[in-house]
Every structure is written in structure tokens, then in C-alpha cells.
Amino acid sequence: MVTALNRNVVRDLWRLRGQLVPIILVMACGVGIYIAMRSTMRSLESARSKYYAEERFADMFVGVKRAPASLARRIETIDGVQSVETRVVVDVTLDVPGMIEAATGRIVSLPDRGRPAVNDVRLRSGRLPRRGNEVLVNEAFAKAHVLPLGARIGALIDGRYDDLEIVGTALSPEFIYAVAPGLMFPDDKRFGVFWMRRRAIAPAFDMTGAFNDVVLRVARGASLHDIELQVEDLVAPFGGAGVLWRENQVSAFFVANELVQLQSFATMIPALFLFVGVFLLNIVVGRVVSSQREIIAGLKAFGYRDREIGWYFAKLVGAVVAIGCILGVGIGVATGRAMTEIYERHFRFPELPFKLGSAETLEAAALVGIAAALGTAFAIRRAVTLLPAEGMRPEAPPVYRPTVLERMGLSRLFPVAAHSVLREIERKPRRSALTIAGVVMATGLTVMNTFSFDSIRHLLHVHFGLAQRETVQVSLHEPRGTALLSELEHLPGVQYGEPFRVVPVRFRAGSRVKSGSIVGMAQGTTLMALHDRQLARIALPVRGLVIAEKLAELLSVGVGDSLRVEILEGRRAVRTVEIARVVDTMMGTPAHMELASLCRMLQETPSMNGAWLHVDEAKLPQLHEAAKRKPVVTGVIERRATLRSARTTIDSYLGSWLVVGLLFSLVMSFGVLYNAVRITLAERSRELASLRVLGFRHREVGIILVGEMIVLICIALPIGLAFGYALAYAMATGPGFDTEQFRLPLVVSPSTYATATLAVVASAVVSGWRAWRMLERVDLVEVLKSHD
Amino acid sequence: MALPQTSTVFHIDDVTKTYQMGKVVVHALRGVSLTIEDGEFVVMLGPSGSGKSTLLNILGGLDTPTEGSVLYRARELSHASRSELTEFRRQSVGFVFQFYNLMPSLTALENVQVVTDIAKDPMSPREALDIVGLGERVRHFPAQLSGGEQQRVAIARAIAKRPAVLLCDEPTGALDVSTGKLVLEALRFVNRKLGAAVIVITHNAAIAAMADRVVSIADGRIANVETNLVPADPCDISW
Ligand SMILES: Nc1ncnc2c1ncn2[C@@H]1O[C@H](COP(=O)(O)OP(=O)(O)O)[C@@H](O)[C@H]1O
Ligand SMILES: [Mg+2]
After folding, report:
1. Nearest CB to B143: which of A398, A696, A781?
2. Considering only the top CATH level, what class is B37-63+83-236?
3. Which terminus of chain A is less hemmed in, N or C, by CB atoms within 10 Å?
4. Is residue A725's pLDDT more than 90?
5. For A368, left (φ over 0), alpha (ψ -120 to 50), or beta?
6. Model confidence pTM above 0.80
């Protein structure tokens, strides 16, 4: 039955639409973001576990120098090991048609027959390689270079250029996030993965009947630690470089880390929206109850029960929540799709379908419902407990007082209209404070959303602009005497070069262990510099290690402590080295040492396995050409090109997030401001129209209307920007941004603050303009007829 | 504004006003012609719904007639734009309403100041409040004043700009007799001392005694015009 009271709920909704629409929008965004982020998380997680399971993704990764094939059997017999696949994995220099620079190719062997037992590939087109130089290539690389099936790519294998023939494209759970060694961002043009049959690749690297990489799957419930120890014992004689657990495998790490980041965003952002939505609802329902007290009293006088009155308002709130949730599901699906699409571009899953999570949807609805109930309970209680006789009397008139500023004697500074605005604000401190809080949150949200852009750009600038100064970095197939440097310096365009030596090691401090490497560089090196976070140059000590703070933290050591260093190549010596300095770095967990003292530690004559070269840029093509023909050179990385590519990746990836995030913060600030100005309009339009009658121009009363909003924004913006900085701080130091791979520096650029300010100003302009136009339409004659 | 006694403030000719209410046409004014001279105190009398407010709003530039002409001095108001009407009200008209329409967030003094801030040659807000006998209560907010006091603030606000005409729609409608009289006295004072033409709308016939001229309106037409040769003093009136 449609009772008169029910019909009035609908009418009230319609009458209050100006104030309710912003609330509904804000709530819908909160619900939408919650649903989108949580569902996307779910979709990502399930796509990942499905993919990992179907392609038998490894639990452990072990690199060795060269181990006999028979070792595989012994690993297999370790308790808890389910399956083992030994492989030959090598990085080679590629000569891609149409590309001047060399690209890096990682060749991963496939067993001679059939499929690998661990880390299988997912064929996307073509077929598996059968013989000779047939390869599968990772789909992203093929797409980046528009390589058709049958295309050939030159690869420098065993000092000889061989053509690899592409017979298929593939994906692999090992390369969902395909990033070249030492880098943070995928570069599909410069890094490709190739799979070829083992017999085709093994001879060139002296791996016939042997392997240099082993991946294994572990039975459920088995102790990873126990297995790790046993595997290490087995591989140690063969140059084992330490066991990498799945969680530290680069691709798996980045995928997992994305989920961690998503998790914190999926909590923080919907919470902000929920808070803002509920406080707006609280304000509006509070006002409705106040303005309808006479009606409520009347209904009670007719015999309506308190409960029925309570129901009335509960329905009003319920309707708002329901509309918000329905709209929110729509927003959630759209946003979730957009997010999934962004992920699809950066994480290579065979399929990444977005699935709206029903549990997530119910959770969101329940959260909003509870929050709205709590937020309006007090106002509804006032309606329920109102005594009829009390309600019939008009409410006590509002009390105005001279404002704080006036009491400070500053009143002369303001025109009369400003007094009116300021006193209105002071009269309702709670509402003003909530509006300020809303703007603060919207501003903070924009800053939090945008700052990662600044931070990563800063990180790139420090890493590729300040620390690394070389034109190209050359890596060598194996360590050579430093005499090779002059040979490299004779390559075309090279003006001078500086050697470095990278050696894989395992650091041990007490019971803590961490695999990594030490980079040795010569005293007086100019093409590479060490910095701390404050960007101060750090001199390379003559003796001892300079290690990243993160590494020190993982090993729980500090300056002056001694580290046991197990060298994972050559004679596999174990040494003790003192930590000379701990540096706060942003990428990886590097350790540096003076080249000569590193070589002494290795008991080698001065040697190098790479060099930084300063090159005449005009001669770069010739250099690349020459380097491709030089067997000892396995990689030539152009610093500028790497930086450019990383920037492009970041711009496209974070740029997409930025747009989505900005849209949401716009809705929030618009919701808060439009609601505020509509309430001002509802409360003051009569008064302002009276001024129009007295001959005030529309412009003059319009200013009073929006003045309140302007004042509140002026108070809120600086707080909001500071709040944004605090949120950014929380993010940068929180999970997902303070990792072994990278630590997001906390950098908030002026343009980020400007964006946040602009978003608020834009919302204010739209809201103010709309209210301004509505005020213009208020009928002056009508205003004079009624007594409020 | 000492203008010659003979000059005409308003001259309206055959003014009609109709409102379309869905399918029904409401005739609020059915051809009203009237001239009002400078410094005149005119009372418009008529039952509720007869069209008094409609006429006053047209004179005050809040509304425009459906047909007919409205001359203020020599200026035609019936076809003036919204902003021209705003300027007219701003410089030349003082309004007093039944419900005072003060700004609750401003003190008495500031409510007057609101208008003096935008007028060309205003008196000081305090002077205006002194005229209506509220010099002592300038710092009070409307909520702290009685109805009569609020109405007197409204009058002070209306006269502070030294308007040529003061238009009052049921100024005593919400007041009891004694406070009503104080308000009428203030109007009278403004009329005599400042020389403003005053038009007061009322359905209260007793007030007519203080007018120079009484215009009776019924059903959208002028039913009768009477001239009082000896207008009564407000304190002698009672209702
Ligand atoms: N905006 C309007 N729409 C429709 N009818 C109106 C409007 N304003 C006034 N009227 C009608 O015009 C007539 C005259 O109204 P009004 O001038 O307010 O009378 P008075 O002031 O003498 O009481 C009334 O019948 C009234 O209902
Ligand atoms: Mg009237």
C-alpha cells in the first residue's frame, strides 16, 4: 500500500535532490572504488594462481655455473621436491631488424622433447620449436617489433651471429612482468625472451649434458627452508648462486607487490569516500529533521507513533544508500574494467578477465549501510524523541555573535557582507568543519594519487641522471683483465671508459642471509657516482663495502660491522669484509667496493666484466654495430634510451591511474562543495533575494552566496595539501612501496599541489556557478510573500 | 532631495497584470491609472487579494506590468531590463516589507550599512537608526530585537539611502497596535522631514486617516480616491 507518508518520502527525495545528488555520487564512488579494486584484486589473484598452476610455475629458482645433468636426479630425490626442470639460460645480444641498438635476449632452453615439467610456456601463436635455431619469442617483444612468424633475428651466440627463426609466440608465468636484469620497468623493445630446444643452444655455451639453471616445484606443506639447504648443498660444488624463492623472483615479486599496493589503496580510498559521503548525509538529514520539526510534531499530534516517524527518516536514508549502491556497482564495473585493462597492458597474463565480485559488492553495500545508519542515527533520534508540544513551538532563533576576527578588532578590514559570511560560518562550526574536512580529503586524495608520478620521476632522474653518467654500459661475457678497457676505448665514438666488476655473492650476518652482488669500481670513477637520498655525493672508501640501507636492514648490520661474503663464482671463496658505509638508496640492494680491493678479495689480478663508456653520440650507431660483432660484449645499454623508455612506460601506466584517480577526487570535491553551496542557497536564498529587492546587483549577492564556500576552501586547501603530503608519506613508507626492489622516495612536486588545488577550484567554480544561476532564478516577489 | 512640490514621481496609465496559472488566467490588475506626487503620503487600502501588492511591486521595479505604462519621473519602467530595474531600486526606492526581511547574521547597524554601502548619497547608518528611535540598539542582532524594533530597523534601512519613494507593504501587518504606531510615526517623520513620497499598503482602514491621499483598490481596479485635507497624526489613530 502506498501510504501518504511513503509518497512523501519520494517527494522529499525529489525536493532535496540538489543536496542528495552529490551525496549519492560520493557514496557511489566509494562503493564503486571498493568493488572495482577488490574485484580487480580478486581477478588478478585468481588469474595468477590459475596461470601459475596451469604452467607449473616454480617455487624455487637456482642458478649454477655449470652442473652435470645427473644432478637433476639428486635434486628430485630431496624430500618435498615435486618436480625439477634443468635448463640452460643465457643472455645474448640481439640484432633486431630495424633497430640500431642491440637488444638483450634471454634464451631459455626447452627440453629436447615435449614440455618442461616446471615453468611451462603458454603458446599464443605458431608452434613449439623443433630443431636448429627455431625459437618461441615472448609475445610482447614480437608485438613491439611487429615480428611475424617466420621472421629472423640475429643473436650473438658463442661469438658467432646466428639467425633465430621465430616459429611461435608465447607467454610464461616467469615473465608476466618481463624486466631486464637490474631494471624496474619492462621495455619490450629492448628485452626479449626466447625459448629454444636445449640441444640447439647447449653446445654453444658448453652445456651439453649440463645445465646452468634449475627450477623446482615443491610439494604442498613441505618446508622450503629445508629444501633450500639441501639444494644448496647439492649445487654448491657447481657454482650455485643461491636459491631464489618465488616471492623474490622478479616477475612474481612485481605482480605480488602490485597486489599489496592495490590492497592498501582499496582500503584507504573507499574509506575517504565513505567518510565524506556519510558526513554529507549527516548534515542533510540533520537539516531535514530541524526544518520539519513542526510537521513531525503535527504528525505525532495526529497519533503517529515515534517508531513510524523514525521509519520515515530511515526510509529516506535507505533510499539514498540504495541508489548510491546501485550506481556504485555501475561505477565499480566500469572502473574495474578500466583497471583490468591497465593491468593487461603491463602484466602479461594469458587472460585477465574482470569479474564483478558478489562478496565484494555485498561488503561495500553493508559498509555503506552501516556507516549511513551510524552517521544519521543522532538526527533521526532527535525526530523520534521530539515531543509534539515542543515541536509546535518554533525553534529558538539562531544566535549570531561577532566573529573571532571581529573580537580581535579586525572588523574594519572587512566589508559588511563579509561579516555576514564569516558569522554564518561561525554559527554552525560543526557543519563548516565537516565541509573543510571534505575538501581536505579531496585535496589529499589528489595529492596521494599524483605524487607517485613525481616520486618515480625523481627516482629515474637520480638513478639515470645523477648516479649513472655514462653514454653506454657494456657488459662482458666473462671477467677479463682491465687491459681490455683500452680495446673497448677503441670502439667507434668512444672517448673514454671506466671499468667495473660485478660479482655474485651471498651476504651472511649471523643467521641472516641475502643473495646479491658487489659492484667494484675504480677510485676516481666519473661515469658512475654514489649518492645518498639527500643527493650528496659519497666518496668510495679505499677499503670496505658501501651497502644500501635496505641491505643493512635485511641483514641487521651497520657501519663497522663485518659481513661474511660468500663469493658465488670462481673458487667460491668466503671472505669477511667490513661495512664502511651505509647509504640510503632508492633502487635494489646494491653493494659497492673499490675495484682493486674487490679484486684482491677475489684473489684475481685487476679485472673487469663491464665498462661505462663515454661516447660521441653521433657515432652511437657505429658503436652498436661494432659491439654486436664483438664476441666478448654481451650487452650494450644506452642510458638515455633506457631512461626514455622507462619514462614512457611510467607515463602510460601511471598516467592511466592518474586520470581515473583525478576523476574520483573531482567527484569528491564537487560533492562536498556542491552540497555546501546548495545548503547555503536553501538557507539564505530568501535573505539574499531580499537584498536583490533592495537594489543589490546579482553579482553582489552572488558573492555572499559563494563567499562562504570560498572562505572554507581557503581554510581547507593548505590543510588539504599538508594532509596529502601525510598520505603520500604513509604510502611511500607503507607496504608495496618500501620493498627490496625499490623504495619510493617521497617527492611531491609543485605541479602536484597545483593539480590538487585546481581540482578543488574547478569543483568550486562548477558548484558556485550552478548555485549562482539558481539564485538568479529566485522569484523576488515570491520571497516577500512568505515568512520563511 | 528637495524637488519642487509639483513634480510627479509616478505616473501610471492603464496598467494591467495577469498571471497564468495553468489554464486559468488570474487578473491581478485590470487597468489602473494613478499619479503620485513628490512628498505625498499615500495609503492604498483594499481587501486581501485585491491587487495592492501587485501594484506596489510594479511601482518598485520588482515586476513589470502585462500592459500599460509606468513612468518614474520621465522614465518608462514597463519595458526596462532586469538590470535597469535593479539600478532603479538601488538608487531611488526604499522598501519596507511585512516580514522585515533583515539579514539575521548582521547587527541593526550593519543591516542599514548594507544599503548605505551601495547608495550614492546616503546618510550615516547611525543617523538613520536615530530617526527611527533605535540609536541605542545598533549592536543588536535581529533575533535580539522585538518585531516592532526589527521593522524600524527595516525602515531605517529603507530611508538611509535618501530614496525618492518609500514603498511599504503592510508594514504594521505583523505588529500590535502600540508598536505599529511607532512604525507609522517613523514613516510619517521620513515623509515630512526627508520629503520622500511614501506609499503604504494596508487592509487596515484606520491607517488611512494619516494619509494625504487614500486610494481604495478592489478587484484589481481603483475604486475610489480620497484626499485628506488634514491628515491625522499617527498617535491619534487607533485600531
Ligand atoms: N505570482 C502569482 N501567480 C498567480 N497569481 C498571483 C500571483 N501573485 C498574485 N496573484 C494573484 O493576484 C491577485 C492579487 O494579489 P496581491 O496583489 O498579492 O493582492 P493583495 O496584496 O491586495 O492582497 C490575487 O488574486 C493573487 O492570488
Ligand atoms: Mg499583499
Report:
1. A398
2. alpha beta
3. N
4. yes
5. alpha
6. yes
